[in-house]
Amino acid sequence: MVRDGRVLAAVVASQGTLHAEYGGVVPELATREHLRNWLPLARCVLAQAGVLPGELAAVAATRGPGLPNALMVGLRAAQAIAFALERPFFGIHHHEAHLYSPWIGGEPLRAQFEQFEPNVSLIVSGGHTLLVHVAAEGQHRLLGGTVDDAAGECFDKTAKLIGLPYPGGPLLDQLAVGGDPAAFPFPRPLLNEPNDDFSFSGLKTAVRYFLRDHPEVGRDPARRRDLCASVQAAIVDVLVTKTLRAARRLGVRCVTASGGVTCNRALRGRLAAECAEAGLRLRLAEPRLCTDNAAMVAVLAERLLRRGCAPTPLDAEMLPSWELT
Ligand code: KG4
Ligand code: ZN
Question: What's the domain range around 68?
């Protein structure tokens, strides 16, 4: 819930532990959880903000991209509320919301668009790895993305090979602390290609073959730390190098990052160090706003409302494969 850029209340229902049992997101379970959760969450957020439904000026939900049925639950619920209240509805692009999440911060949490400047934005999650040029608010162009696995998927799949439970990204991050990132030189796919694309499936395969040939590394705690640090370094190296290269090429003075993988300490540290060296300002989404959340959706929707953008029709369908254009 957002008013004049201030986040009045934000609640997230995480399904992490539910899906952990299956080693990945189970779409049918995700849908059922959304159905179960949306009304209690809406009530909770209204109560926390001290706002009555009739006081809402507009309603927003993610329209895509994402898992079809999970999207449909949120979209239809929000459209029904907007219909009942006779308020405009905004169907938000999930990645566009991520693009602006680094511009939300502080305590109390609020949008900081007065500080906005053109930037290159890295969105890294379990499902996406995108590099976007944000020339002005509302004006963005997709520069590149992953041609196979997302960075978070690579973290999770290599963590699984190392024997860590799903989602392994945060655990790999923890295990890498104190490990030697140069211990094992894993490949840096597409690092030197003249494009803004990423590829991570080869790295995962390299780790699989490495563990097949050196099973003792996975069993020895110190060498396991080195392995985690080395895998992490390979992923972070590619992400940071290509992001900064794009920023320099496009002449922007600012780099931003969001998405679950932006919680990774090595990624945050390396982005901070390299941006400082290159004289670029860095805006990282706060860890609580890196992962998917409704606050970034509401902030963007309020901006669209204020700018006089046309609302989304109440019968608009979800767009599971909506491209960022
Ligand atoms: O944005 P997100 O919560 O959900 C979507 O995928 O949409 O991102 C989750 C991903 C998972 O792959 C998870 O392992 C990864 O973000 N992740 C991390 C860390 N925290 C979350 N990966 C590496 N290090 C972390 N600290
Ligand atoms: Zn996301």
Answer: 2-109+290-306
